[in-house]
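Example for tutorial group B:
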């Protein structure tokens, strides 16, 4: 018998902020996720190296998880030396949780770039994809993504509970136009980041003088 699904949110989290957390909170409530696992990357394959160390980013993710009931931290990608490929993480989790539906949480920008991901055709063999998108937005899907949606999109929440993997759920979320790049620029300028990230994370950043402009 299957257990309740869990959510998986990977990212550089440099730093973690409401643009990461708010869609995950909404997915947790809407889909009835038993928990949400925050999975910080060690070596992100699709972007430049992080500004902060793995230890600093892990500390911030732990603080954010502690402020959100049902959120936990999964450190497996930080323990690898190779790039943090999502398919490797999903295979590892599926081995550990054979009877748990896995819901990999991502933004629409990630879905649109999915064909550039390592072994992207295999992701749905291990998890559902839960995609956060702005209400009313009609993306221009690449042909490969459009085909994937035609074959796997579902509007049945129950299907995410009844099956371990294989569905794509598009979720309308509150629009939050915030990126880690924009937040780092704000912090470097000495501006107040209040309400843009958890208070405990803001205190950690201030205490350790992270993301400050070069003197």
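The residue assignment follows.
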């Amino acid at each position: 018998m299957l257990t309740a699904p869990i959510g998986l949110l990977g990212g550089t989290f440099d730093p973690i902020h409401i643009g990461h957390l708010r869609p995950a909170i909404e997915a947790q409530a809407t889909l009835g996720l038993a928990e949400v696992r925050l999975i910080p990357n060690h070596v992100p394959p699709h972007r430049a190296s992080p500004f902060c160390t793995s230890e600093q980013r892990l500390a911030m993710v732990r603080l954010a998880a502690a402020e959100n009931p049902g959120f936990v931290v999964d450190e497996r990608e930080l323990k690898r030396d190779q790039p943090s490929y999502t398919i490797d993480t999903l295979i590892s989790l599926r081995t550990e949780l054979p009877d748990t539906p896995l819901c990999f949480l991502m933004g629409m920008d990630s879905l649109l770039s999915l064909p550039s991901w390592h072994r992207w055709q295999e992701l749905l063999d291990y998890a559902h994809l839960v995609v956060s998108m702005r209400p009313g937005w009609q993306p221009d899907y690449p042909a490969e993504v459009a085909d994937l949606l035609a074959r796997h999109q579902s509007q049945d929440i129950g299907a995410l509970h009844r099956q371990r993997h294989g569905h794509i759920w598009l979720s309308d979320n509150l629009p939050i136009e915030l990126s880690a790049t924009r937040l780092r620029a704000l912090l470097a300028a000495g501006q107040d980041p209040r309400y843009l990230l958890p208070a405990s994370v803001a205190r950690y950043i201030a205490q350790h003088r992270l993301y400050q402009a070069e003197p």
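The two ends are 59 Å apart (CA to CA). Compare this with the pattern of hydrophobic and polar residues in the output above.
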